[in-house]
Amino acid sequence: MAQLIYALDLNIVFVALPEIGSDLGFPGQTQQLVVSAYVVFAGGFLLLGGRAADLLGRRRMFVLALALYAVSSLAGGLAPNAETIIIARAVQGVGGALLLPATLSLINTLFEEGPGRNRALAVWGGAGASGLTIGALLGGVLTENFGWPAVFFVNVPLAGLVAAAALVVIPRDAARGERRRFDLPGALTVTGGSTSLVFALVEGPELGWGNPMVVGALVLAVALLTVFAVVEARSSDPLMPFRLFRNRSLAVGVSVTFVYMATFGVLPYFLTVLMQTVHGYSALQTGLAFLIPSVAIATGTQAGERLATRIGNRATLLIGFVVGVAGTVGLAFGFDADAGYGLLVPGLVVSGVGQGIVWTAMWITSATGTPAHEQGVANGIASTTLNIGNAIGLAVFTVIADLGTEGRTGQSLRAATADGEFLVVLLTAAGMLVGLLVTVCLRNRPAVPAPVPHEVAADEAQVACR
């Protein structure tokens, strides 16, 4: 359920943006801040969230994150002005940054390496795929029938119920043994640097890459992340121990998450533009159109678990990328101003299955070989790379997609938009080939069947992985 809430919140606000802008007086371009505030703070605080899960307790951070979600969602729904709703979305982003690594580290410590963990991650991945579709559908239904505040209020009971269930179902955090430092200098520099970097990448396409705010954010990001690297190299108990990257599974897994979100991860954005801007779909019609790829992705996540258990992570990732490349090339031919939805369906299905296989396998890979007491920071590293990959992918590909659209209007603009996106989708398929090359570096170690620890029953992890 926690992953469902996290994924749902990524999409549910999109369809409500026009109403939010009209009601609260947002100019058209600044409506994007409602989305950007969430993305920037979620991306900037992920590594800190992973460290907090390791040091302060995974269940504790899980419940705190859900509480932040509930409170900020209530504030967002009651927001009387633009400033309040942007702040509420920023706090939601912090909640997401605490929730994602806490959820993953709970799964990776409640389940030992092997079939049990693989199945849990497949359920978690399937919940994420469902959340993206439900977010688009639910956002359209709630906005049309109850107004934009409903897309915020829906989170309040959901987050509250999951937090309450977690206190009952998930085992208490173990007492801390050896006392470890939080590494405040490292936490401040990496959070500030990551937040500045994501801000620049998200706002660059909107404001222009020469905008003083964007340039300043990039300079600040480079400076802070450089200081962070120096601090971590000298610290006796660093926030992000560089020795973790000696684990080839983590190094390859993190690299794959970057490639995944820079390629597979940008496709929903361009599909939404195609459906709404080129073909004129309503928000509800767009949500319904995403049902097919979401089912395909969810199917792929389950296939990824079975493959990883039987043939190992390396072979599974290779299969996923091959299927993804083939499907994405086919999908590109549906990006035509005169093409109907039916031409997209074969590519959506094949690409979606490949996407789901890679999604499950890359998280299994990232968690393999990392000690339990460092699962939080390892998942924080992978989650941070995921967000940065998505931000960089969107920043680069939106510029490419818009190259031929300047000065065009009407049908000419729609045709140019579709043509630009056709090229972008082919380039994402080429990017997936990079994922293939990275995966070759992984040792193929089939998962060793391992029983779930006797003190952890299967239902104790359902709250975290659904």
TrEMBL record:
Q: Which InterPro entries match?
A: MFS, MFS_dom, MFS_trans_sf, Sugar_transporter_CS
* Highest taxon listed in the record's lineage: Bacteria
State the membrane topology. Answer: Multi-pass membrane protein
Cellular localisation:
Cell membrane
For this UniProt record, the keywords arranged alphabetically read as follows: Cell membrane, Membrane, Transmembrane, Transmembrane helix, Transport
GO cellular component: a single term: plasma membrane
- Is Membrane a UniProt keyword of this protein? yes
- SUPFAM superfamilies hit by this protein: MFS general substrate transporter
Which Pfam families does the UniProt record give?
Answer: MFS_1
| Keyword Cell inner membrane carried by entry | no
Which residues are in the Major facilitator superfamily (MFS) profile domain?
1-447
What Gene Ontology molecular-function terms does this entry list? transmembrane transporter activity
What are the TM regions of this chain, as residue ranges?
A: 32-49, 61-79, 85-108, 120-142, 148-170, 182-202, 214-231, 251-271, 283-303, 315-335, 341-364, 376-401, 421-442
What is this protein's name?
MFS transporter
